[in-house]
């Protein structure tokens, strides 16, 4: 039987063998034995084995790390902060999302959590030492930096961020971060004074410029007694959601380069400094449309009446009170390619708004004289200049829905109407679901497309898809 001297093999084959054996936790000799065994058994996958000079010589171009079951793979670096215990919870949250986790603990991190806990939760070996002969015989820190989809640092201590900003590589964590060719997400955690220190501010700015993702820190109580401020690490569930966002494959962006203007929510029409006329609109539908348009690549401005909703990420949100404020801000936001008026604008306001709080008097109730508010949809639809090429209105009706919506599309001069029944029994006002009918012009005719009951997010996605198709056709 011939003997094989690994040393004498071609360099490309040697490099491949080293990578493969390290990945499988075997010696190179054992790996060769396994490969020969597989060959003899005629295993088909061997024919696709990556023995190519480019993959062997350029580990920076390592193959994607999705494993056989399609799972993603992250390297989690745990820094030496009091929030390290939350990173154990983070491992669980990531695994719930079918993300494989390999943990690296810094020396300081091991003062707060043990490698054993991280290993038990991740079901993987934990790495702590740059000069570990067991993993460094084939430059294991390079593998930890590159054989993953994302590197997370949680908690990202002030010290770790300083090292990153200055390119240090004197321990396993910093060497991985310097050798990385994958996205990096930091979850900073530290005392508010450390966070606000000029040195940390400079480092954070540098890291942001270097394209590093960051989540948090949040404001709240510190571990130190009687201290509060910005510095708490984001919760594990928030970090896991940010990870999922980064790992999500890029979505098509059919509205890239388009400006979309959206209104949402009710308006408040003052009676006096403490009272107002309002309606039950929650703003959820308009906010969902703004988020969907932003996800489709549009540059979105959302003018919203008073609502209790968070700003959708990446959207310019302008908060207003009254119909007149709303019209003013809408006009100022033009030009736009698409305008969607989903706000429930009050039709009337009080003619003589009290400068002081109205008092009960023996003279009886004060008469409330109403005057008509500006009609935002009609005003923008009838603009001579700056009319957006596609203007979409909403018709919220409690009776004769389609007939009223057809009349509205003609009266207002808009292009489409999204009609919905807002009778109390439907639960649309303030609820999470909506049943809508999309009215569009088809020559002289008006086309009515009735959609099934959907969540407001689904309605938003459908509407944005329809808009994208129309924009594509007309360009
Ligand atoms: C009890 C205790 C809690 C600490 N908490 C934090 C913290 O939350 N954030 C931080 O940046 N440093 C914290 N430090 C200081 C770090 O442990 C120290 O800067 C260490 O060198 C950071 O190591 P690393 O670079 O491996 O993360 C703490 C230290 C102690 C003793």
From TrEMBL:
Phosphopantothenoylcysteine decarboxylase: annotated span: 1-259
Cofactor comment text: Binds 1 FMN per subunit.
Gene Ontology MF annotations: FMN binding; metal ion binding; phosphopantothenate--cysteine ligase activity; phosphopantothenoylcysteine decarboxylase activity
NCBIfam families found in the cross-reference section: coaBC_dfp
Annotated ranges, domain Flavoprotein: 73-237
Pfam families found in the cross-reference section: DFP, FitA-like_RHH, Flavoprotein
Protein name, entry field: Coenzyme A biosynthesis bifunctional protein CoaBC
Binding locations of CTP: 347, 357, 374-377, 394, 408, 412
Keywords from the named record: Decarboxylase, Flavoprotein, FMN, Ligase, Lyase, Magnesium, Metal-binding, Multifunctional enzyme
